[in-house]
Design brief:
Blueprint (H helix, E strand, L loop, with lengths): L1 H11 L11 E7 L9 E4 L4 E4 L5 E4 L5 E8 L6 E7 L4 E8 L25 E5 H7 L4 H5 L5 E3 L9 E3 L7 E5 L2 E2 L21 E6 L3 H4 L6 E6 L10 E9 L5 E11 L2 E12 L3 E2 L5 H17 L12 E2 L5 E14 L2 E15 L41 E17 L5 E19 L2 E19 L6 E17 L7 E16 L2 E22 L31 E11 L2 E12 L2 E12 L3 H5 L1 E4 L4 E4 L3 E5 L17 E5 L7 E12 L4 E26 L27 H6 L3 E24 L4 E14 L16 E9 L3 E10 L15 E14 L2 E10 L23 E9 L1
Parallel strand pairs: 1-7, 11-14, 32-37
Antiparallel strand pairs: 1-4, 2-3, 2-5, 5-6, 8-13, 9-10, 11-12, 13-14, 15-16, 15-43, 16-17, 17-20, 18-19, 20-21, 21-22, 22-23, 23-24, 24-25, 25-26, 26-27, 27-28, 27-29, 29-30, 30-35, 31-32, 33-34, 35-36, 36-37, 37-38, 38-39, 39-40, 40-41, 41-42, 42-43
Keywords: Cell outer membrane, Membrane, Receptor, Signal, TonB box, Transmembrane, Transmembrane beta strand, Transport
Membrane topology: Multi-pass membrane protein
Family: Belongs to the TonB-dependent receptor family.
């Protein structure tokens, strides 16, 4: 362990290396011949690591005789791997030379095989250290959005999940130390991820299919939050953070500490965050802002004014406050050949849900899930001065308890080299509270176990077998429980192997799973779904719709049945990394991954107020009776018109065929990573707009405030609607139904870094994804909420005590949109920060000031469900202090 290695290094300085039989002693130097201090030296596969001292020296005593692989990494340098043969008398004075790298190289810690951003066949990015602390945010998606290829579905700063290459939801796995975070963030955009960045040591992003390591739920990528909650050593160290922000009056405090004695290691962390509604530079409701602007323009014209629209005054996104806190306790027993330990975490978060209304709020429309092909689009905003008098303050109260058991064991055995054990239990619940009353409760209970067994090198091949089991019971109860309780069980087995053939590293893998989904109380309601043909100006017919529905009554259930589905997803993967020249490599990865549909994609049937839609799963289908298309009869007889019944279609696996091509420069003052990808997905589950509307199940009869039409469906003229017409459809939601189609996603990511001097570095990046249906009309082939083209630059200065950063990021406008979706304007964000290190009592304390959106730009996120009512925060200044001991 690290503490023991330092002691061994001190002893080595006074004794001859020959005293230690079968020892390895060496020195790590830079290309300039100077020693590299605090470099990490690891004996691959044995769980042994050491840190170099000030003179660059390290030692491993009592190392077994035979072939071994040494990995060395240090900040600012490219990784070094060297195969050595340790004789019976050991090795001493071995010199290792590291070459400079302009791009930080960080190892992935939660995959069985060694991987890093510059050496793997699949694209990987890692946030850690000062970069993580500088970019961390209250939500996970917002913390990661500066990584090339990763965007956020920004949900008014209270919730967000990562969007990786245009995919999110059930296709992107969110993990904590390699295991599913097991919340319900992949069910709804207003559901926060139950994980905290301020106490993490690093966050890993695997772009593209990562199903070999994490299961079929990772068909689009993985985000893994890593911390030291189960400590692997007992060196005493820790970190604390205090920060305050202006845009939302946020106050943040966090800490983590590791310590121990003898063979025992202990860990603790905790955090607290509190913030108010956040400020924006413009009126948050887009349609309301447009209407007010038009009104003011008319007013100026009448009075002879020609001044530009004045946006002076404070604007806030209402109901965007949050309060979060949590703590973790963990401990390990350190063995000669590894460790085993447990941890328990309590995570609590209470946050507002902006736009979570039932037709009586003056809010803009909502776009729907980033993995679905529709946009809820925009409410008919008129800037009603009474719009907030009847708004509902809805908030979520989230609680989660998570227990984890982690173990790593190394063996000097003829067959088995290493065994890694991961087990977890998660008890999650969050309540959505309206007017002080619990409306809906979401719960998720998950058991998970993964065992990776790695074998000794066999004819040059390194790898092993992974066994993976997960059982998830998820349920929603209440007025907005749009999915029935269900249980999903997965058992998988994977084989992963790699081997060097000269300058080429070949990586192969295969995985097979058995996934069963059971739901015993699936309901088929009698749904009064109808169209709004009268809003299209079709006045020649009789549209005598009766909208005096009893919204407070429950739907009549026509059938209750059991759904029992079994799937066998199979993943095949092959990759190669070719070091064709010193400091350069070319990587190719191809894979075929299958995914079983989630419970919400199959079984949904009800109002999902968080997305302002009435969701219907793929298990059901829209039908019409013989009178359903009689354009002269619109009296809404329940026995006529459209209806929803069980589908005749086969429920099949979603299949992704992905290819990644990567070109890297890994050494020198200039480094780069270029990725190009092509992903063809068959049977892609997504939602389409049926053109129908259904009641949201709430009683709106008592509200008389000039309500607005909840949804603009692309064919209405905003100026032609009267408030009374909108009020006629108050409390209705558009019906969206899941279906499958074949889609294509392709694009690129690029990153270039130039270490101009020892203290100054400049970087540029860009990413782009195009997501479309393989078939379909030219104007309706694009998938919704696809991230726009983005590019940016960062300039960094760092000396021994002072560091400064300037980030400029441009988001282009997005005009490649789906039906019922609107375009989004482009914008440029400017962020900056400065930090100064103060040595206090031999500890490193840093005071810092950072600013976000310094130009106070109106920025609406195209991938957001709330882009028309909740733009990004305005200008924000944060001041803080963080310390390491």
């Amino acid at each position: 362990m690290r503490k023991l290695s330092k002691v061994a290094a001190l002893v080595c300085a006074t004794l001859s290396a020959g005293v230690y039989a079968k020892s390895l002693e060496g020195i790590v130097l830079g290309a300039d011949g100077k020693p590299v201090a605090d470099a990490n030296v690891e004996i691959h596969g044995l769980g042994l690591d050491a840190r170099t001292d000030a003179s660059g020296r390290f030692v491993f005593p009592q190392l077994a005789q035979g072939d071994t692989e040494v990995h060395i990494r240090a900040s600012g340098f490219a990784h070094l791997h060297r195969d050595l043969s340790v004789p019976s008398e050991g090795l001493s004075n071995v010199t290792f030379t590291l070459k400079r790298s302009a791009i930080e190289v960080i190892d992935i810690v939660s995959t069985p095989l060694h991987m890093s951003s510059m050496e793997s066949s699949i694209p990987i990015s890692v946030l850690s250290g000062e970069t993580l602390r500088r970019q961390q945010s209250a939500t996970l998606g917002d913390s990661l959005e500066k990584i090339a290829g990763v965007h956020t579905n920004f949900h008014a700063k209270v919730a967000s999940t990562p969007v990786i290459r245009g995919l999110s939801g059930p296709r992107v796995l969110i993990a904590q130390n390699g295991m599913d975070v097991s919340d319900v963030s992949r069910v709804g955009p207003d559901h926060a991820v139950a994980s905290e960045a301020s106490t993490a040591t690093q966050i890993e992003v695997l772009r593209g299919p990562a199903t070999l390591f994490y299961g079929s739920g990772a068909i689009g990528g993985v985000v893994n939050v890593v911390d030291n909650r189960v400590p692997t050593d007992n060196e005493t160290r820790g970190e604390f953070l205090l920060e305050g922000s202006t845009v939302d009056e946020q106050k943040l405090a966090s800490f983590n500490v590791t310590t121990g004695f003898d063979n025992f290691a202990f860990y603790a962390d905790g955090f607290y965050r509190d913030s108010d509604d956040y400020e924006v530079p413009v009126m948050p409701e887009l349609e309301a802002a447009d209407h007010n602007h038009e009104h003011e323009h008319e007013h100026e014209h009448e009075h002879g004014h020609n001044d530009e629209h004045d946006n002076s005054g404070d604007f806030f996104v209402e109901n965007s406050a949050e309060e979060s806190y949590g703590f973790t306790l963990g401990g390990s027993y350190l063995l000669d050949n590894g460790f085993i330990g447990v941890s328990v975490e309590q995570f609590n978060r209470e946050y507002g849900i902006p736009g979570h209304s039932h037709g009586d709020e003056s809010h803009g429309g909502h776009s729907h899930d980033g993995d679905h092909s529709h946009d809820d689009n925009h409410e008919d905003e008129h800037g009603d001065e009474h719009s907030n008098e009847h708004s509902e303050e809805v908030f979520a109260d989230l609680e989660q308890t998570r227990a984890q058991l982690l173990g790593e064991f190394n063996f000097d055995h003829a067959l088995v080299r290493e065994v890694n054990l991961r087990a977890g239990y998660t008890d999650y619940e969050h309540s959505e509270i309206e007017h002080g009353t619990v409306g809906t409760v979401f719960a998720n209970e998950t058991y998970e176990l993964r065992i990776d067994t790695l074998h000794q090198p066999f004819y040059g091949w390194r790898g092993g077998v992974s066994l993976h089991y997960k059982n998830t019971d998820i349920e929603a109860q209440g007025s907005e429980a749009f999915t029935p309780p269900s249980s999903t069980e997965m058992f998988g087995i994977a084989l992963i192997e790699e081997r060097h053939f000269g300058d080429v590293l070949v990586q192969l893998g295969a995985r097979i799973e058995r996934v069963t989904m059971d739901a015993s109380d699936v309901q088929l309601p009698m749904l009064d779904a109808h169209s709004h043909d009268d809003e299209h100006g079709d006045d020649e017919h009789d549209h005598d719709h009766d909208h005096e529905h009893d919204h407070g009554s429950e739907l009549e259930i026509t059938r209750v049945f059991t759904a029992d589905h079994e799937f066998t997803p199979i993943t095949l993967s092959a990759g190669a990394v070719w070091d064709f020249a010193p400091g350069y490599n070319l990587a190719l990865s191809v894979s075929r991954s299958e995914r079983a549909p989630s419970a919400s994609e199959l079984l949904s049937f009800g109002p999902h107020i968080g997305t302002r839609t009435y969701e219907v799963g793929a298990l059901f289908a829209l039908t019409h009776d013989e009178h359903g298309h009689d354009e002269h009869n619109h009296d809404h007889d329940h026995e006529e018109g459209p209806a929803i019944g069980l589908t005749d279609e086969v429920i099949d696996l979603e299949t992704a065929n992905n290819i990644d091509l990567t070109f890297r420069k890994t050494e020198g003052d200039v480094g780069f990573i270029f990725n190009a990808f092509y992903n063809s997905v068959d049977n892609y589950y997504y939602q389409v707009n049926t053109g129908l509307f259904a009641d949201d199940g709430h009683d709106h009869g008592s509200h008389d405030h000039g309500g607005h039409d909840s949804h603009d469906h692309g064919s209405h003229d905003h100026g032609s609607h009267e408030h009374g017409d909108a009020h006629e459809h108050e409390g209705e939601l558009p019906v969206f139904i899941f279906r499958t189609d074949d889609v294509i996603l392709h694009g690129f990511e690029a990153q270039v870094a130039w270490q101009v001097t020892n203290t100054f570095k400049a970087s540029v990046f860009a990413d782009y994804v195009r997501a479309r249906l393989k078939d379909g009309d030219a104007g309706s082939r694009d998938l919704p909420r696809t991230p726009p083209l983005r590019f940016g630059s960062q300039f960094s200065y760092q000396n021994e005590s002072l560091s400064a950063h300037l980030d400029i990021t441009r988001y282009q406008s997005q005009d490649k949109i789906a039906n019922f979706e609107t375009e989004t304007d482009g914008y440029t964000l400017v962020d900056a920060g400065i930090a100064y290190d103060l040595p206090i009592l031999d500890n490193n304390v840093t005071v810092y000031l950072k600013g976000n959106n310094l130009t106070d730009t109106e920025a609406r996120v195209h991938t957001s469900f709330l882009k028309d009512i909740a733009p990004r925060p305005g200008r924000n200044l944060s001041i803080g202090v963080r310390g390491y001991f």
